Amino acid sequence: MEDDETLEEWLHTSSVASLFPLLRRGLYHVTSIEGYRGIRRDGFIRPWDGSFRAAFPKSNSHARHHGWVPLFDFQTPTEEQYFQVRHQWGMFFVKDEPVTILIHLSREKLAPKLIPNEAVETEADYRQRLRIPYVEVWYPEPIPLSAIQSFILVFPSKPVRYLIFRANEEGLAELDRILGEIEALIAAGLIKVLSTRDRFIARLRQSY
C-alpha cells in the first residue's frame, strides 16, 4: 500500500501523537499491568525467560534470541527514521487494555551497556529475527528499579491520554491505588479486556 502521509499529517491524526513530546525525551520499556506487578515483585525488569506470560509467545525477536530487555529510544533516531517505521512501533504504546504502562528509564544509568539498534547487523543471520528499525534498543541484563525514573499509564483513547507517576514512595502508592481500582473493575466485568495478541491484530488491521 502506498503511503503518502507526511510527518505533519501524522502528528495531527495519529492516536499516539500526543505521546510524542514525552517519548522524544526518554528511554522506555513497555509492559502491562501484569508485567508491572512482576517487576515490582522481583525488583527488576527482566528479559523474557519463559517464567512469565509473554505478549507474543512465538516471537522470533533479537530480544528473545539474545535474552535482552527490549527498549524504545526516540532520542537517537532522526524524525524521518522514526516516522518511517511508525506503523511498527505505534501499536506497542496502546497494546494493552485498559492501560499500557510505559517505564521511563535513566539513560545515564543504562548507557554503558545499552545495545544500539544497528549492533545486530554484524550478525550473519540478523535478518531472520524481528526488530523495529531505528527505535528499538536493548539492555543485556535485568534492569533494577533504581534505574526507573517514572511510570506512565497510557489509556488507549483517541488521542491517547496518560498519567505520569514518579518512581518514589508517594508516586508508587498513587499508581498502585489506581491500578487496584482498574483491576477491581476488570474483576467485576465492568471493563472488557482483549488479549494483547487480539488487540495488536485489531490495531494492525486498522492501519491498512
Topology overview:
Elements: H1 7-13, H2 20-23, E1 27-31, H3 33-42, E2 44-45, H4 62-66, E3 69-73, H5 79-84, H6 86-89, E4 100-105, H7 107-110, E5 136-139, E6 143-144, E7 148-155, E8 161-166, H8 169-187, H9 196-206
Antiparallel strand pairs: 1-3, 1-4, 2-6, 3-5, 4-7, 7-8
Could you describe the 3D structure shown?
By secondary structure, this protein is an alpha+beta fold. It is 34% helix and 18% strand. The chain has nine helices and eight strands. A six-stranded antiparallel β-sheet has the order 5-3-1-4-7-8. A two-stranded antiparallel sheet has the order 2-6. A hairpin with a 5-residue loop joins β7 and β8. It is globular and about 50 Å long. It starts with 6 loop residues before the first helix and ends with a helix.
List keywords for this structure.
single chain; 208 residues; alpha+beta; six-stranded antiparallel sheet; two-stranded antiparallel ribbon; 9 helices; 8 strands
